[in-house]
# Entry
Amino acid sequence: MQLGIKGQVVVYTGAAGLIGSAGTKALAREGASLALVDIDTIRLAALIADIATTYPHAKIMGINDLDALSTESIDGMLDCIESELGPVTCLINSAYPRTEDWHLKFEDIPFASWQQNVDMQLNGTILMCQRVAIRMIQRHHGNVINFGSIYGLVGPDFSVYEGLGGMTMPAAYAAIKGGVSNFTRYLASYLGPHGIRVNTLCPGGVKDHQPEAFVAAYEGKVPMRRMASVEDIIGPLLFLVSDWSNYVTGMNLAADGGWTAI
# Structure
């Protein structure tokens, strides 16, 4: 049985990131047409070249100049995508922009920095959803996948950061990802009658060259006793993109090794 991804037109923001790179390659393998959005021009170009080499028949376009807080910029991007690839069938919101002081302790965060991060991450996601949904409503079909986090579902366990020289879970991250998760529920309810489904994928900690002490502490807390690999997140992502999840909407799917179960 096919996944039902072939022929879909997927907009993927944050495409050149750790999970984004793996996710976009998997989607290209399954036959999706891809509009890859990322501000890192070097990594984006390398990703597109890699996909084009590995999957020479894949339809790909790159966007590196999107202003995710501008209606005009998003609408212009969507016009361009529809002209080149066709109507967007799936939006994946995976972008993760943040300020340089992102990791400050809560009591040290300048409020202007907090506002900027909420604008870039939460409000950018919401505006992308709105502009894409307008077009999907007209076609009575569509699929939106937002990237959340386990820390949008539960509070952090700060013990895993002890003794790590200031490494912590940013306060704004909890507010933003919690907002994404509940906004997903709202949007699924609102857009369901239009044939549009909306879900959030909530990864647990993904192993990516973190300090050994953190990895050991984290893995000691998670029931499966290991951090996620990137591949552990891609399977659930493909499920949400595919026709196999046609009756799944409004869900926060935790790919977390059981972290949120305890």
